[in-house]
Amino acid sequence: MNKKMLSEKVADILDIKVSEAYSFINLFIQTSGEALKKGDRIVLAGFGVLKPIQRKEKKVLNPNNGKKMTIKPYKTVKFKPSENLLNKLNKK
What we know:
This protein has about 90 residues and is α+β, with helices and mostly antiparallel strands. It is about 45% helix and about 30% strand. It is elongated.
């Protein structure tokens, strides 16, 4: 499901315009990104937790030429699904 499809689904469920749902999703993405950049966790009950983490510098081998190289430290996001979401995924 992409952003457009999600917007259409949300608009249908909430009986609003697709453009309003699309704007809401964009706002959610923007504010979530800002919060994660500040180091805040985002807890969505029934869905999961988004948490910013810092990856350390590491030395690796380039698979193309076998030379050693260094991957600089960087920030990324870790997602931990809620028990509710996992139950929905694994429901038979």
